[in-house]
Amino acid sequence: MSNPAEDTLEKVSGEFEAEMLSELQAGRDQALSALEAAKRETRAEVAKVLEAGAKQAEALKRQIIGAAELEARNSQLKAVESAVVDVFEAATRELREGAGARYEKALAGLVDEGVGIIGPKSRVYCRSKDRKAVSAALRGHGEGQSKPVLEEKEIETIGGVVMTSADGSVRFDNTFEARLERMRPTLRMQASAILTGT
Predict the structure, then answer these.
(1) Model's pTM, two decimal places?
(2) Would you say the C-alpha torsion 161, 162, 167, 170 has a positive or negative sign?
(3) What percent of the chain has pLDDT over 70?
């Protein structure tokens, strides 16, 4: 038989063991719950980091593409400008040599255009090399007081004429250089259209 002290001790020991097991189970459940919450929180943080990384990668991609497009556009503009400069240099070389019927016909056209803008009562300036051709082109414009006057004073130009009204208040620069400059924007657009195929 067992003694009452042993029974009590066994009973207390059993109750203590049950209480400890219950507390251990509660602690385990609490630890598992905390672990599950930490996992959820970690997954959320990882998702945020991945989303931020994806946004940053997309922004970087757009930046790289934008820079590449800008670089391509700049290269295209340089090519267009280079083509325009080449055309201007070739035209300038050809015009500087200025001789022959084609050149004289071009000078006559410049004179006609100038007379159309300034009027027949005008003063005409040209380089000495063009004087004979310009004088011939002026013969058909006006008579007496209403006739253009070819001035003795030369101008520095590769060719063409500068015309002014009789009183000098209106001036029309119809030299080849001035015409080329006026054509530059159109030529640039045409070169760009050729290079881009539009």
Answers:
(1) 0.58
(2) positive
(3) 95
Same-domain check for residues 178 and 124: yes
Stretch (H or E) spanning 167: none
Tokens of 135: 């004088």
Task: Please check whether residue 166 is in contact with residue 123, taking contact to mean a CB–CB distance below 8 angstroms.
Answer: yes
Long-range pairs for 151-156: beta carbons < 8 A, 24 or more residues apart = 151/123, 151/124, 151/125, 153/125, 154/125, 154/126, 154/127, 154/128, 155/125, 155/126, 155/127, 156/127
What does the pLDDT look like over 158-168, one tens digit per residue?
A: 889 999 998 88
Block residue for tokens 């310009």: 134
Query: What is the residue range of 41's domain?
Result: 1-97
Q: 93 and 3, same structural domain? A: yes
Closest CA to 130 of 164, 104, 94: 104
